[in-house]
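Hi V.,

You were right to ask for the full record rather than a summary. Here it is.
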Amino acid sequence: MKNINKDDVIKNFLPKIKYIALNLLSSLPKNVELDDLIQEGIIGLLQSLEKYNPQKGVTFYSFAIKRIRGAMLDYLRKIDWLPKDLRHKIKKMEEVLAEQNIDDYIDDEELAKILEISEKDVKKLKAELYRSHILSLDSFLITNNEINIESDNAENDPEILAYKDMLKNELKKAILSLNKREQLILSLYYEKEMTFKEIGKILDISESRVSQIHSSIIIKLKKMLGGD
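Predicted structure:
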């Protein structure tokens, strides 16, 4: 986009960039800095100014938001805070959460006993589990694809477009198979862009409980879609 004042664009988008960053940050470890996510979001915004094509029928706002989110997710892919000796516990935690009834709640102490690790390590596992979700199926739910749609080849390749449509249809079927409360949480988080804390207030449950239900939902969906 030519003849655009970049400083003005950044100023206008900054509240939204901060909101997206805070939403992601709500369940990430303390060593992930808000300012770093915001900075990556700004980079994504500036990239959108260079690559936006109004002839493709997408508003600049929608295009920029996708770029902003994508830049933050790319940053999170580059960092790694989980010790290697704990990685094998991730699958076990997923199995435990997947077996939960939506009205059940397993606190960190119980998880620590089941997994035979400390409560401190449980928190690390939860952080990694959340990160893996926002970088895989979570990313799909946010951007409506699991393929790099930024490349020209992807946008014009009929096979890739057909695959994307198939993924969307399969995901819709999987979501409809969830119960109403699970569907509501997905809607509030992805469509309304509410934080776990805000969702907890609506459902009258704790923020950590919303986070746990969210993890269980993503695990279920991944299994339905044949994910690992």
